[in-house]
Design brief:
Keywords (chains A, B): ATP-binding, Kinase, Nucleotide-binding, Transferase
Oligomer: homodimer
Number of domains of chain A: 2
Function (chains A, B): Inositol phosphate kinase with a broad substrate specificity.
Strand content of chain A: 15-25%
Largest interface: A-B, 27 and 27 residues
Distance between the termini of chain A: 59 Å
Structural class of chain A: alpha+beta
Organism (chains A, B): Mikania micrantha (bitter vine)
Shape of chain A: globular
CATH superfamily of the largest domain in chain A: Inositol polyphosphate kinase
Strand order of the largest sheet of chain A: 7-6-5-9-10
CATH architecture of the largest domain in chain A: 2-Layer Sandwich
Radius of gyration of chain A: 19 Å
Pfam family, one (chains A, B): IPK
Number of strands of chain A: 11
Enzyme class (chains A, B): transferase
Chain lengths: 294, 294
């Protein structure tokens, strides 16, 4: 029996008469093939990537496992082809999740004029142009009583550079829903050094990917997203390996043709700087890395 | 007495009734202030940059020295305000010069709709979108008899990714004007390890700048160019320090507002990969770095 995912923070949602992703209870994620070639393009990417021997294992771990395609009963009630992927959140109980679309440009060189105009408008209205990335959605686990901090899509759509900085701080805070106006102080970033920092934290993983993007010329990843995920309880116990960085959404991947993906790399480098800034700032105050300012 | 520069490879050229740069015989370059605020914007950048104490000397060396503005008799015959800058080619006799405009996007976030449309068209028609940079002009010294290889602007305007790869090879070849069709082989890249490689070569200098761009959030350099310069005779004698990498054209620099210049960094990283590829390939054959393929 398939059901809708519990922890989706962005993208199409399955509903009455609406196609959206489904999951089973064995850790698989069913993504319906989208129209106008996007579905087949994404299948083509997964087929190519799965069989490409030039992808090091250290990089492959950032991508969901691909199990092929299957026709299943969709959320609309009728049979529809789906990609069968690893359900990234299946191992989690109360995952904090953030979806970040990378690149200041979300359209590839061969896109149609109409599609370019549509993307360019969104890229300019969001933070994609100024920051090289935009937040597409997030949820931050607080506790069993309060549940999750999960800002509405209408707010996410309007986020500017200052909101992005704030949301990246809230993502690693024990008080994500605290309004600065009321408390007199912002999110506490108490989990920053656990989640962003450390040898297996998000920053270390992003730097590993960055080194690959400085050299790889196989694929260009337009409109692709990072999924950051961690389990607050495990993070507090120091279970680092559960802090996950994954890449998703490959409907607009193109051949690299011997050129690096400078659009993705630029956005990734910008995101790295944002996260480094948060770490530097929280380390200054908490002194957790030994560099206490006296 | 001012005169037109001998080694200009791109940009407006001074002529009868046309404003363009001039030089004197004491090593100064006079750049006329352009209209529609560009001139004053570029002056504002040079004033800000010259007095900014947060720019390390290791980075300042990549920029022309700025001496202020001065009203001089322009190439049009009338008085006009000029920026007075260091003449970068004054120390050279027969410089090989290449001008490369960096960034897949040459317009800043606050540009007008009309200006964005104009730039986007050029960025898409050139290699800026696919490669993250485009070649704006070059001259390669051959010898006193043959003079320079200097492709016409009409060819430069039409260069695609393969032409760019070829021109980057020709720039460091003793036979830049050889047509592959006739000789059966391409440019020899005989100067690649001298000019691109080595501890003071172009690649090392670009990597130094890249490290700064991964961290600096002061300026965003839209539509800014690299000028690569070397003197063939000196390069052959091992006079490394004369291989120059300079940044020019700052009419579209904007405030970084705490964000890295991901557009410039992406293009710079792409250019670094192109140059690394040429070095790797020429080293494979010449064995100059000891890694001969057996």
């Amino acid at each position: 029996m398939l059901k809708t995912p519990d922890h989706q923070v962005a993208g199409h949602e399955a509903g009455l008469g609406k196609l959206g992703p489904l999951i089973d209870n064995s850790g698989r994620f069913y993504k319906p093939l989208q129209g106008s070639n996007r579905g087949s393009e994404e299948v083509a990417f997964y087929e190519s990537f799965s069989s490409n021997v030039n992808i090091p294992d250290s990089i492959r771990k950032f991508f969901p496992v691909y199990y092929g395609t299957e026709i299943v009963k969709a959320s609309t009630g009728s049979d529809h082809p789906h990609m069968v992927l690893q359900d990234l959140t299946s191992a989690h109980v109360n995952p904090s999740v953030m979806d970040i679309k990378i690149g200041s440009r979300t359209w590839g060189p061969k896109a149609s004029e109409a599609y370019i105009a549509k993307c360019l408008k969104k890229d300019r209205e969001s933070t994609s142009i100024p920051l090289g990335f935009r937040i597409s959605g997030l949820q931050v686990y607080i506790d069993d009583d309060s549940g999750f901090y999960k800002p509405h899509r209408s707010y996410i759509r309007k986020t500017g550079p200052d909101d992005v900085r704030l949301l990246l701080r809230k993502f690693v805070s024990s008080n994500p829903s605290s309004a600065e106006m009321e408390t007199g102080r912002g999110p506490d970033c108490s989990l920053a050094s656990l989640v962003y920092g450390g040898p297996n934290g998000i920053l270390a993983q992003l730097l590993e990917l960055k080194a690959w993007f400085e050299d790889q010329t196989i694929y260009h990843f337009y409109a692709c997203s990072f999924l950051f995920m961690f389990e607050k309880g495990l993070a507090l116990k120091g279970a680092w390996s559960k802090t996950a960085v994954k890449l998703i959404d490959f409907a607009h991947v193109t051949d690299g043709n011997g050129v690096i993906d400078h659009n993705f790399l630029g956005g990734l480098s910008s995101l790295i700087k944002f996260i480094s800034d948060i770490l530097a700032e929280t380390n200054d105050f908490s002194g957790t890395n030994g560099h206490v300012e006296l």
